[in-house]
Amino acid sequence: MTALVRLRPVTPARRPGRIAILGAPNSGKTTLFNALTGHRAKAGNYPGVTVDRREGDLQRRFGADDVRLIDLPGVYSLQPQSEDETVAVRVLEGGFGEPAPDGVVVVVDATTIERGLPLLAEAAGLGLPVCVALTMIDELKARHGQIDPQELQQELGVPVVGVVGNRGLGIDDLGALVSAPWDWAPSSSLLRGVEARTPEDRFAWAHSVLGACRRQVPEPNRWTRHLDRFLLHPVIGSAVFLTFVAFFFQGIFTWATPAMDFLSGLMDGLADQALATLPDTAVTRLMADGVIRGVGAVIVFLPQIVLLFTVILFLEACGYMARAAFVVDRVMGWVGLEGRCFIALLSSYACAVPGIMATRTIPSPRDRLTTILVAPFATCSARLPVYLLLIAAFIPADPVLGPFTWQGLTLMGLYFLGTGAALLSAAVFKRGLLRGASLPFYLELPPYRLPRPGDIALGVWDRAKLFLRRAGTIILAVSVVLWFLLNLPRRPADPELSVAENQRLVLEGSYAASAGRLLEPVFAPMDFDWRINVGLVASQAAREVMVATLAQIYAQEGQDEEGLGVLLSGSGEDGSAPLLSRASALALLVYFAFAMQCMSTLAVIRRETGGWRWPVFTFAYMNGLAWLSAWLTFILASAAGA
């Protein structure tokens, strides 16, 4: 029986170089990886594919300073169906021009151990030294289950360590074990599992091992069973979801307002201080009006971004998001997709780039391509600053029903508008251009768990850093270029005019104004003037640039003493004319809901599809739909007296 496996020898004379961490989704694999590496991971991609790779060095406190850990994609089996699973197998077999790992830590959830042991047998069948990290030990005991790691180790013949990753229990033992994979040779008992060629045989072997270990099966999670009775109900579950979403979007306007007001005052104060204390030069005006006001107009929305990701990460960590996939699977089936596509679309509400990358777990190539083409419709965080600005300026804050106001319901409606566009587009593609049957949908429902605040905070911090990095790179660069376009060509100042009037003349004759006027025939049906057109062009780099552009234009016109929303709607005390009518503002909201305005998204579509055909198609059909929908919105809103 042992002839079936050829173990790659690892001797104490050769320090381990690379250890792979393998496990099913929701098994605690990434939590262990973070604990062993101290959250110091290096992200990248595997050569020739687009699957993320995460590697990190084992912390030196475990007694080794040259061990590299590889966090493999979560898999249920080494019989690959998706790109993620294919990559995991290739890494274990020594693909991508790199040697095979020196050992594999197989992460097994103690509450579902019978589903984890077959994966252990498959890993050992590759001829790699293996050990077992038995996670969720605390949850197993809480549900009156039992498994003795020492008995399991004796039966398997490989090291077994019980750990509770989020509390650090057993991490030191596992870290020391990872430093010495030469002790991980499988016994004849484990090799019987390796010999089992079919999934049924491997599961039968797993049950025989557990029987020999006198394992006590955990009781069903009472809270999970009771909550699922309501949250998975097709009617009640949908109603709960919609009610929660309504409260959430209303909260975006109320809970984050104090922090927004503070940041807005801070940015305005910094710009005014720069103009007041520094010499009156072009560099000073560039720094104050171009950099501080331009980038600051976007940073002001950081509190809403933090709130958005806090809620999303909390729902993911507590186990609700997987349930949401099942609730909407019926709708997804109507458009020709399945629940895994919903997970990718859900990720796109944070940012379309990771959402599109999440399609790698979709086995069907047609379903994957369809999801890639419609994912940009999801209302990403980059749209949020534009939505909040226009809604606050043009939609009244009057209450509609209890705590809900027109502003909160409008924001929720825009999110549903993007979702509806994605689903309808997917239905069209699946019934025509990408016709084909979907594969069956399966997804393990994790038990409900109370998330650790530290994990949520770390995830929110990562997303906030990404938002600030965009503000400090793309938005900063566009703001600086835009400042020059708004200030060139220079014209001699007229001494008989005020400074503000001279600035306005320069702005009216600038390169940016000329470019905006060239586009007026395109957007005249929605009554957009050249200022809005300049913002639409600039926002092709990133949607948030629209807010920075308008802030710069008003600063150049000397009207930055009032809020940007007040200036847009003409509701200030000076009685100035509004830049937009309410009908035009509604048309602009709809345009942003549908338009493709993100170079990063187009780049990742090209990378995922392997060419420019689909990015060009996505840009054309989304912007065409955006223009048509905005025009219809303007016509209907004008007819209604908006």
Task: Describe the SSE topology.
Elements lengths: L17 E6 L5 H9 L4 E4 L6 E6 L10 E4 L11 H10 L10 E7 L3 H12 L5 E6 L1 H6 L6 H8 L3 E3 L8 H8 L9 H8 L3 H14 L9 H10 L4 H19 L2 H21 L4 H18 L2 H17 L1 H8 L1 H6 L4 H10 L3 H6 L7 H10 L9 H11 L4 E3 L2 E2 H25 L22 H20 L1 H14 L11 H10 L2 H8 L1 H4 L6 H9 L6 H12 L7 H6 L12 H13 L4 H11 L3 H27 L3
Parallel strand pairs: 1-4, 1-5, 5-6, 6-7
Antiparallel strand pairs: 2-3, 3-4, 8-9
Helix pairs in contact: 3-7, 3-8, 7-8, 10-20, 11-12, 12-21, 12-22, 12-27, 13-21, 14-16, 18-20, 19-20, 19-29, 20-29, 21-22, 22-27, 24-26, 26-27, 29-31, 30-31
Question: How does this model look, in words?
Answer:
With 642 residues, this protein is an alpha/beta fold. It is 58% helix and 6% strand. The protein is built from 31 helices and 9 strands. Strands 2-3-4-1-5-6-7 form a 7-stranded mixed beta sheet, sandwiched between helices. Residues 1-15 and 42-50 have low confidence and may be disordered.
Short description:
By secondary structure, the protein is of the alpha/beta class. The protein has 31 helices and 9 strands.
Keywords:
642 residues, Rossmann fold, two-stranded antiparallel ribbon, elongated
